[in-house]
Amino acid sequence: MSSLHSALWLVVVAAFVLAWWLRRQRGRLRLLTTYVDALAAGEVPPPLPEPLGGALGNLQLRLSRVAAAEHARLDEARAAQRRLEDVLGGMIEGVLVIDSAGTVVLGNSRAEVLLDLPQGDLPLGRPLIELTRHPDLHELVRDVMGDGGVQRPFVRDIHLEGGKQMMLQVTATPMPATPNGLRSFILVFHDVSEMKRLERIRRDFVANVSHELRTPLAAIGGYAETLLGGALDDPLHARRFLAIIERHTVRLGRLVDDLLTLSDLELGRTELRRVAVQADGVVEATFEVLRNKAQQAGIALTRDVAPDAPALDADEDRLEQALVNLVDNAIKYTPSGGHVTVSAGAAVAPRMADGTIVAAADGLVEIAVADTGIGVPPEDLSRLTERFYRVDKARSRELGGTGLGLAIVKHIVQAHGGWMRIESELGKGTTVRLYLPRHQRDEEP
Q1: Is the pLDDT of residue 220 over 60?
Q2: Rounded Cα distance, 291 and 286, in Å
Q3: CATH for 324
Q4: CB neighbours (10 Å) of residue 178?
Q5: Residues 165 and 143 in one domain
Q6: Please, which residues have CB within 8 angstroms of residue 153's CB and are 6 or more apart in sequence?
Q7: pLDDT of 170 strictly over 90
Q8: Is residue 339 pLDDT above 60, yes or no?
Q9: pTM over the 0.85 mark
Q10: Which residue in 137, 224, 271, 399 is deepest, having the highest Cβ count within 10 Å?
Q11: Residues 115 and 235 in one domain
Q12: Which tops the pLDDT comparison, 397 or 179?
């Protein structure tokens, strides 16, 4: 009986041990299941206890290695994603990736600005056509997606209408198809508005300079041919024809001189001899040059220089050249009985009508040339400093202008590190303000 009792106790103990071991294994299995589920969901898995021996221990060690490798891959993927976002965010071009249905898959903030897309997070997953109202862009997207999508990169210019009025150069590039056959396309938008504007200015410049040269050359050639054909024997006509030839020769010389001056200023070949220049002296020198012309035109010249006007840090000859151009223009376009005023003093930050400050004026001197002339239409103000741009072409040529005066003034001011501003009202006159650096000794305590 004692042997039987002992055997029964051993069976009971073994049963309890087996039950405890099975319960512990089930707990480990539940923990491993939770761990795997968290890994599959991309969540942070719960910590595992020290691994035990046997099959479950080996499984736990293998899962831990898989989790570590997965974390490393996720970290690399996140780092790559951040690098991609940094690269896209730092580009001056707008970038959009669309799929074969025209849906936005990826993009950068520059694309939002260029295409007027909703600011903030790009509306990924929505068709691009729903996000914009630009017909040229809609046509581009249709062409990209049509007939199964583009097969090779192509470039096209599109014009965005609306408030910005921009010209964009778009490069559409197909991406390799995914294993499931889905295709996507990269659209890169480059703002070429300024380049197109400069091309237009260059074309206008070539056309204008050709016209400006052709007119006096044709006159000189025509009258020279007339003189050689017999008019030279007629003293009265010969003298008049020679005077016309001389006038057109002077005009040609003035045009060539202005072109050379402008070219030297633009290329930085003009050396500025900067010294302390008193505004009062430069204004008086300008009036000395133009006083007779103003009197003949019936224009009064007025000097209004503040007694405490700071000295300018400028090249006196170039500054006088700029003022002569401005005052000469003011005299030409002011009717008889009007007046031209040149004022100077410490600059005050200019403001718009709503009170907005246009630019800082610390350390600058303002010289303003104001007239009571015919004024300039608002739509022409922004183009006044372009080479050969004239509001009234016939009147400008009649008065002997080359169309380069304001362009030369602008570049002289910019060479000094300053800037200019033009205000005008039709029938009431024009004011040109020059903002130039003051001499530093005037800033010392």
Answers
A1: yes
A2: 8
A3: 3.30.565.10
A4: 10
A5: yes
A6: 171, 172, 173, 174
A7: no
A8: yes
A9: no
A10: 137
A11: no
A12: 179
